[in-house]
Specification:
Two copies of one chain form a homodimer. The first copy, chain A, has 348 residues and is of the alpha+beta class. The first copy, chain A, is built from six helices and 14 strands. The first copy, chain A, has a single domain, classed as HIT-like (HIT family, subunit A), CATH 3.30.428. The longest helix of chain A has 22 residues. Chains A and B meet through strand 1, strand 2, strand 5, strand 7 and strand 8 of A and strand 1, strand 2, strand 5, strand 7 and strand 8 of B. The complex binds adenosine-5'-diphosphate-glucose (ADQ) (2 copies). Chains A, B: This is ADP-glucose phosphorylase.
Chain lengths: 348, 348
């Protein structure tokens, strides 16, 4: 924030996020008007010239790490989606899975506990065409990308050694993307990650207090962005990031990979629309999306309170020392205001 | 990572961080050689011309929000450090503190819990001179900056309404700094932030397993960067970020603000040295530092296992969807390798 802008008068709040059990400082005094909150580094600026040497483009398949599957399955040069191994994987599918359960290892070496870097790290090439972005696809095609995620999760779920699968997308350099060609990533992890445990604990706390699932209760007109037959998109009440959007299934469902073809197309349409709205209102911002689902093995008691959702975070502000130190976020835009800006965007 | 670099052969590990209870993927296959891991956007590139209009410069005091104190206290034009109110505060010192304890409020409105945005947000101007960076100060002067932090914490601690004080510094635009003039920030919070609770729980777990404080046990030759009479600097065994450094007091101490003048100068010297080493080996990278201390009110049982430290994180890689989704980090540089690169940097 430069010293020349004058702060608006609406007073801030500290809101509690019931899904992640964290506090968010909603601080309008830090921002300009919500509608002025555009990205200063649009993602598209880094992807204007199609790169003839891009390994993800059709015709360059041999420059990639091995393919896991493609869609349509029998396609040759006319594939639409490819799921491949990551050439620089953060985890190795060839490492030995750790033999003992993690808790036992921790007790044996509490200050220096390490396990092998076993796991899966795959890339989903979402289109053969370098110049096409995810929301440029038709809603059915976005649905097919989501079904490719599902298919790969089901494969990984068959391995007992994988406990959690994280699907995510980085779009634009400041959201982490090193490849400009439209893609997402899938990581199969040998343990349940800390934020997933925190999320489950927090949703359990809400359930214990109310007898209800906190995401089943999250729909509200003032924070609504858009909705379809099977999903609704909201700016969550205690959004950590300005213009953060969650797409939530209406039905209480634990796992993303329970989605069927009809719902995948429905979700594809809503995801496409939300990405178009963000792009239009915020100048094509870099973003991440994460599929927030449940661990592969889930006890029947957890099933009452875990509910998957798709979290979309545009990159409009920088994480600084306060957020790294405290785990609290500072959001300069009231979620109700952000929802209104997105609701009003006409992308038909 | 571009597709033209070939990955090295050392295999990865998944390491457990006993202070934050999180898992870190140490993934050398993602990186080049550790010594090549330089910042591509040195912070200094954004601060070459002294800005005549900078409100933090000597002579521009009247462009700032009100002063809280200055050092030396009776100085007029020749001040060395000023602690001022933040002009665009994320929390408001004029708001009413929330009357009830937070747990009660949560139970009353579990999905829509909000409290007033009460709290303190201050700025510490670390030098009157626009062109001077923190490590350009003498070790005694860096020590005085730390004593200014201490003095302000002690003031906030006298207010019963403040539960935790976060001191942090953002250096360089990609670490969040919007002002180039050397400064740090202090926020007084009406609640204990989530990451602080997680840290305390995790250190308690270690203590319950071993009877020891995990930071008292953290010193180790292979991860040592440098040490002084009262402090040691290490790259932690399960560093979340490449070249992350922790400066830890040798004596088991709960609160940063217990530091005395002699130790502050000692710490000032070590902080200056570590920042110089990072700058030299990594091309003046943007960084954050956070003072990780205990809540102001601490039960006597917690005192056994909480131990403050100063966490320094250079910004060399981008947080992507994987980290946001899981709370796990991917660190491409083995902590032992990073420590060696920093240990060997000659900054005398
Ligand atoms: N020829 C080829 N065949 C197969 N795969 C290829 C390939 N060429 C490149 N790749 C892989 O394609 C992936 C592209 O992924 P992204 O651009 O989304 O981000 P990346 O994983 O690099 O890092 C971002 O996301 C991660 C995870 O969130 C963060 O840790 C990191 O800092 C951030 O920059 C890379 O993982 C790369 O290894
Ligand atoms: N004349 C004046 N008088 C008094 N104060 C003045 C002033 N002019 C400016 N200021 C204040 O000085 C501070 C400078 O702080 P930094 O440059 O470290 O980062 P900032 O707080 O802007 O945001 C970074 O840090 C925060 C917290 O980590 C992140 O939320 C954010 O995204 C990131 O960019 C700002 O907070 C600003 O409000």
């Amino acid at each position: 924030m430069s010293s020349t802008e004058s702060p608006p008068s609406r007073t801030g709040e500290i809101r509690h996020d019931a899904v992640f059990d964290r506090w968010v400082l909603i601080s309008p005094a830090r921002s300009r008007r919500p509608s002025d909150f555009k990205s200063r580094s649009p993602a598209s600026s880094s992807n204007t010239n199609p790169k003839p040497s891009c390994a993800f483009c059709a015709g360059h398949e041999r420059e990639c790490a091995p393919e896991i599957f493609r869609l349509p399955p029998a396609s040759t040069t006319d594939w639409k989606i490819r799921v491949i191994e990551n050439l620089y994987p953060a985890l190795s599918r060839d490492a030995e899975p750790s033999p003992s359960p993690v808790d036992g290892l921790l007790a044996a070496a509490p200050g220096r506990c390490a396990v092998t870097g076993f796991g899966f790290h795959d890339v989903v090439i979402e289109t053969p065409d370098h110049s096409v972005r995810l929301p440029d696809l038709s809603l059915a095609e976005v649905g097919e990308v989501l079904l490719a995620h599902k298919q790969r999760i089901l494969q990984l779920a068959r391995l007992g050694s994988i406990k959690y699968v994280q699907v995510f997308k980085n779009y634009g350099a400041s959201a982490g993307a090193s490849m400009a060609h439209s893609h997402s990533q899938i990581m199969g992890l040998p343990l349940v990650p800390p934020l997933v445990s925190t999320r489950l604990d927090s949703m359990k706390k809400f359930y214990d207090m109310t007898g209800k699932c906190c995401l089943c209760e999250a729909w509200s007109e003032d924070i609504l962005v858009s909705e379809t037959a099977h999903f609704f998109a909201i700016v969550p009440f205690a959004a950590s990031y300005p213009f953060e959007v969650w797409i939530v299934p209406r039905d209480h469902t634990n796992h993303f990979h329970e989605i069927d073809n009809e719902k995948a197309v429905d979700l594809g349409g809503l995801l496409k629309l939300v990405l178009q709205k963000l792009s239009k209102q915020l100048n094509d911002p870099p973003y991440n999306f994460m599929i927030q689902t449940a661990p592969l093995a889930l006890s029947s008691s957890c099933a009452h309170y875990t509910h998957w959702f798709l979290q979309i975070i545009p990159h409009l502000s920088v994480i600084g020392g306060f957020e790294i130190g405290t785990g609290c976020f500072i959001n300069p835009v009231f979620p109700e205001d952000a929802a209104m800006v997105l609701r009003e965007a006409d992308c038909s």
